[in-house]
Amino acid sequence: HEAKKTQQQVVNYFSDLSARADDLFNMSTKIKRALKNQEFELFLQPIFASKHDDMHGAEVLIRWPQNDGTFIGPDIFIKTAEQTGQILAISKWVVLETIQHLKKLKKAGFKGSLHVNLSTRDLESLDFYEFIEPLINLDPTLSDFIMFEITEGAMMTNIDTARSMMYKLNAHGFEFSIDDFGTGFSSLSLLRELPISQIKIDQSFIKEMLTQIADYAIVESTLFLANRLNCKVVAEGIENEYLQEALISMNCDYLQGYYYSKPISIDDFIKKYFYEEV
Ligand code: C2E
Ligand code: MG
Ligand code: MG
Ligand code: MG
């Protein structure tokens, strides 16, 4: 009986594994088609300077609209794209589309910078740099208007390449922000080794910081550390005025969250922030 049970477990294990391989394959086929047919869309979420309450910039967040009017969230397909090696193609598309967005935004009066999320996979070869270089030659002001967010959640397998690429981009003026700070494997050593000028405190620490003493302590210490390292700090996940008030009084530089706006399409963004309602 036990042997039979084990045998069944082994069968289940392999059928799960092959189901997952099928899922991955299907998803990678869909992603390829989506890139070809321009199915992806970029949404924008504003980031405000806490001192003057003006717009510091906006984060660019990818969306994948489906025929039924729903979206597949990046949390799902970005992970798949990292596994299938398609992430670099997505990141390149995001950068090119962000440049188009910038043109429209500047025309409307936007003066901030757009924060583009990169995957740590993008930093593991020089391909991304080779893609960016000609774009800088075309427009040397690009680095004034685009900065990169990298999440340290995924272990960096090729830190030497990542470091040299980040310093090369940094030499052209590009700045880097560590996203989801505090949730990954190596936040503190990244701060020491990489050209980081901004830290985004993960929303999981922000949400309950007014009732959870540990969360408050983590936020407070991150602000202290960032200040000592000359890094600016963004607090993500601001959902109410109490969090806003608390973070302003703690001298957090920038604030982002549903309290101000959810991520919205570029047209809605321009309507909301740059044109008076008629
Ligand atoms: P992230 O970069 O940490 O982005 C912040 C996420 O938190 C976004 O989810 C945003 O919609 C959400 N958010 C912002 N303010 C609030 C708030 O007040 N409350 C709550 N509950 N959530 C808030 P989203 O757009 O689903 O993106 C999820 C993740 O997917 C991003 O996390 C980022 O890691 C990744 N991602 C999104 N777009 C891209 C992209 O173009 N390229 C890459 N490589 N990754 C991306
Ligand atoms: Mg981000
Ligand atoms: Mg984040
Ligand atoms: Mg993230």
TrEMBL record:
Coiled-coil zones: none
| Assigned keywords, A-Z | Membrane, Transmembrane, Transmembrane helix
> Boundaries of each EAL domain copy?
24-277
Q: What is this protein called?
A: GGDEF-domain containing protein
Source organism of this protein record: Pseudoalteromonas aliena SW19
